[in-house]
Write a structure and sequence with these properties.
Layout (H helix, E strand, L loop, with lengths): L2 E8 L3 H8 L7 E4 L16 E2 L7 H11 L6 H20 L6 E2 L2 E2 L12 E2 L5 H15 L3 E4 L3 E8 L2 E8 L5 E11 L20 H8 L4 E2 L4 E8 L12 H5 L3 E3 L13 H15 L4 E4 L5 H7 L1 H9 L9 E10 L2 E3 L11 E3 L4 E2 L12 H19 L18 H30 L1
């Protein structure tokens, strides 16, 4: 059995859905996801989405992004992202996405490493607000078919040209899906780590498949740790305490309940300071106090965080909560150009699985949703311009190679972690030689 479509998209996060919604209505599109459509990391994003609020803020926004990224950012990618931000917000509002407003004007919040407030938000569930509305729109469209619990195990590759993917359905059947164009929107790498804010099923399959098919990668060892996730002895995904909590005034305290750091430092620098303090205190966490924020603001701006902490036994309006750094975001990935094209013909990558250089070595808070949407739309527009049909090739693939799914997943895990380590050593060696 095999399927055929015009475009196959791997992933139901914001990037995958936005790609689909920006493709022509006369194109048949299949979107697959390993889990339920709602179980993407885009749904988990709390803080918000950056926007160029006025032309006077351009230089500061640009500089903040580069400073956070240790000046390893691709400047043209940053420029494209910032200049496209207003258009993206307008697009989202057409899909009924709601952002906080006061008397009809946007309310902006601030997060770490931002020189001023420029982040639009919806309570503390901005990612859910955006992605759920995009998913609702995708479900309405007759040309889009979403297949849940369907896992990509490989691509159909002939002479460095992608002809679609090979997938595994929930019954274990291996099914090729031929397509003129393929878009990877597979998310990050959090499922490879014990402590992560990501869903555990997001395990960098796209990156592993790229490595196996000699598709170029970029900055694969650039992995962001979020400074503040709720400490827990339970296993599984870590609950993120949004950076905007600190942007609104929350403070970090050591075991003696004294402040020890500037809470709005870039994420990698603040993470280092928290880990150092944990070592000094001989504690598995530090404290975060939300007391500087008014109770009514906590309950209106951060209702999800308030309720979750309450379930865990902490009333953030009355007491501190224990927080610890956890793996959060992947700045590296499959190398793409400014239209999200990979080094393989007819294959695009968008969102966290791609690397266009926007984030450099460290992502500026709330640039992730914006970057994903900007470059997802550019991928869709580029495919629309090209509008090529692939020849119908005969498959010469032994599908039995994909029957042992557990073995395959372990293999992919080792491939990605091995490549990350190799790149880390190369980076360290390069820096050592320069020194």
């Amino acid at each position: 059995m095999e399927l055929k479509t015009d475009i196959i998209i791997v992933g139901t996060g914001a990037a995958g859905l936005f790609s689909a919604l920006n493709l022509p209505l006369d194109k048949n599109i299949i979107i697959i996801t390993k889990d339920k459509a709602e179980n993407s990391d885009s749904f988990l994003a709390q803080g918000g989405i950056c926007v160029l609020k006025n032309k006077d803020d351009y230089k500061n926004y640009f500089d903040d992004t580069l400073k956070a990224g240790h000046y390893e950012n691709d400047k043209k990618s940053v420029e494209i992202m910032i200049n496209s931000s207003k258009e993206i917000i307008e697009d989202l509002e057409k899909y009924d996405v709601k952002f906080k407003k006061d008397n009809g004007k946007y309310v902006y919040t601030r997060e770490g490493a931002h020189s001023s407030p420029r982040i639009l938000f919806h309570k503390d569930i901005t990612g859910k607000e955006i992605t759920s509305k995009l998913l609702n729109e995708a479900k309405k469209r007759n040309n889009i078919k979403i297949i849940e619990q369907f896992t990509m195990v490989d691509i159909i590759n002939k002479n460095n040209k992608c002809y679609g993917i090979i997938g595994r359905d929930k019954k274990g059947s291996i099914i090729p899906i031929k397509a003129d164009y393929t878009i990877f929107a597979c998310g990050g790498i959090g499922g490879l780590f014990d402590n992560s804010t990501n869903f555990p099923h997001i395990t960098a399959d796209g990156v592993a498949i790229a490595i196996n098919n000699n598709i170029e990668l970029k900055n694969i060892d650039y992995i962001q740790i979020h400074p503040t996730t709720l400490y827990s002895k339970k296993t599984g995904r870590r609950f993120l305490i949004s950076e905007s909590v600190r942007g609104e005034g929350a403070v970090l305290l050591n075991k003696d309940m004294k402040r020890f750091a500037d809470e709005l430092l870039p994420r990698d620098i603040l993470t280092k300071k928290i880990l150092e303090q944990m070592k000094k205190d001989n504690m598995p966490y530090v404290w975060l106090s939300m007391k500087p924020i008014a109770n009514k603001d906590i309950k209106s701006h951060f209702p999800n965080i308030y309720e979750h902490c309450l379930k865990e036994g902490y009333d953030v309006t009355k007491e501190c909560i224990p927080v610890v750094p956890s793996q959060h975001y992947f700045m590296g990935g499959i190398k793409v150009d400014y239209n999200s094209k990979t080094s393989m013909e007819n294959l695009y990558a968008v969102g966290e699985t791609s690397c266009n250089g926007v984030h450099g070595k460290n992502r500026l808070a709330s640039n992730s949703l914006l970057e994903s949407l900007v470059f997802a739309k550019r991928a869709a527009k580029d495919i629309t311009r090209e509008n090529k049909k692939s020849e119908d090739i005969k498959l010469n693939i032994d599908l039995s190679n994909y029957n042992d799914y557990n073995k395959l997943q372990e293999s992919y895990r080792k491939i990605v972690l091995g490549e990350i380590e190799r790149n880390k050593k190369e980076y360290e060696q390069s820096n050592h030689n320069e020194a």
